[in-house]
Write a structure and sequence with these properties.
mainly alpha; Amino acid/polyamine transporter I; 15 helices; transmembrane helix; membrane; YkvI-like; transmembrane
Length: 366
């Protein structure tokens, strides 16, 4: 295996898939970045760095575990790591959280349609959710190709908006920290935590729940695990850099963004209305890439891909998520669902550290 040549195409595809999975409604809209990074001022850099280190670690760990143990089904990783009883309970909990995350994506799509297009939120999100359900029909292999190609495009367009915004608002940089502190003292900022360290841990915690089934499956089905590992490494690095840049753009503009459902869309509109129209498509693509991955994780947990039961479940789970996602505001769902479940995700990361030492898990393949 060590002599196998790297496939640049496969590395690019997996890196793109990872980025697209992580982008979702929170990144593309800026809501997630604002709550987890921008509202901590310059300490947001520390959040980015800690998340990057832990993201690389947990991604490599999950790939290696899937490749080494060939879990069938993928959720067998839980009883393997935590014992049968605790593992089964954790499996049920994770599936429930992932489904709630899908609900967050639905709410994000609705918020985008209402803010940018002034569409009826219900009609818009119904169409969007049905498109997601149809996409999941194809199964994981097809999803990796679809979202792997979309991911880099979203990153590039989001960075264009962020860098452009930083450039035209450079005069706001000196007073950005003071404005952030004033907003926080006034109780106007919605933050993941009162502490940047807890924010970082909560973020990587909920992301870990998302990635377990996704990366274990990729690792299990990899002919060359080196491609997969190089892919998640570069995907993590690029995602972290993009997060830092977008986070900084939001940070210096918190005075006008703090109560926005879609902060990045407001940044685009501040540059020019036509850019906001174009970027709104990027936001929807970002929501789409994560929504299909999350929905696949839930449906594939109970039904075999490409069967009639699998396809029917795609539709049923989508419709239930659609109903719940229209009941609450997007920013509220992000703050409650992600933050609380993120802290619990740290338990899995600590277990991963333990098993890496105990089983001498080979995180990197030369």
């Amino acid at each position: 295996m060590s002599n196998q040549k790297l496939s640049i195409g496969r590395i690019f595809s997996i890196a793109g898939a990872l980025m697209a999975f992580l982008i979702g409604s929170g990144f593309a809209t800026g809501q997630e970045i604002m709550q987890y990074y921008s509202t901590y001022g310059y300490w947001g850099v520390a959040v980015v760095l800690l998340v990057l280190v832990l993201l690389i670690f947990i991604s490599l760990f999950l790939l290696e575990m899937g490749f080494r143990h060939q879990f069938v089904p993928d959720n067998e990783i839980y009883p393997y790591m935590f014992g049968n009883t605790v593992g089964r309970i954790m499996d049920i909990y994770v599936i429930f959280f992932i489904y709630l995350s899908f609900v967050v994506m639905v709410a994000g799509a609705r918020a985008t349609g209402m803010q940018q297009y002034n569409f009826d939120g219900y009609i818009f999100v119904i169409v969007f959710t049905l498109i997601v359900a149809l996409s999941v029909f194809f199964g994981l292999d097809r999803l990796v190709d679809i979202i792997g190609n979309i991911g880099p495009i979203i990153i590039v367009l989001t960075l264009i908006v962020a860098v452009w915004s930083i450039g035209i608002n450079a005069d706001k940089i000196p007073g950005a920290m003071d404005r952030m502190l004033e907003l926080n003292e006034s109780g106007l900022l919605q933050r993941a935590s009162n502490n940047w360290l807890l924010s970082a841990l909560s973020y990587i915690g909920f992301v870990t729940w998302w990635l377990i089934a996704f990366l274990v499956n990729i690792g299990k089905n990899s002919d060359n695990i080196k491609d997969a590992k190089h892919g998640v490494l570069w995907g993590s690095i690029i995602f972290a850099l993009a997060t830092a840049i977008v986070g900084f753009a939001i940070f210096i503009n918190l005075d006008i963004l703090y109560d926005s459902q879609i902060p990045t869309l407001m940044l685009a509109a501040d540059i020019h209305p036509w850019l906001a129209s174009i970027y709104s498509i990027t936001v929807l693509l970002g929501i789409y890439t994560t929504a299909v991955s999350l929905l696949w994780t839930v449906v594939a947990r109970f039904f075999k891909e490409k069967t009639n039961a699998y396809r029917i479940a795609c539709l049923v789970f989508s419709l239930v998520g659609l109903f719940i996602g229209t009941l609450f505001d997007f920013d509220v769902l992000v703050n409650y669902i992600y933050v609380i479940n993120g802290y619990l995700g740290v338990i899995f990361i600590l277990a991963a550290v333990y098993y890496t030492s105990k089983d001498k898990v080979q995180l990197w393949t030369k």
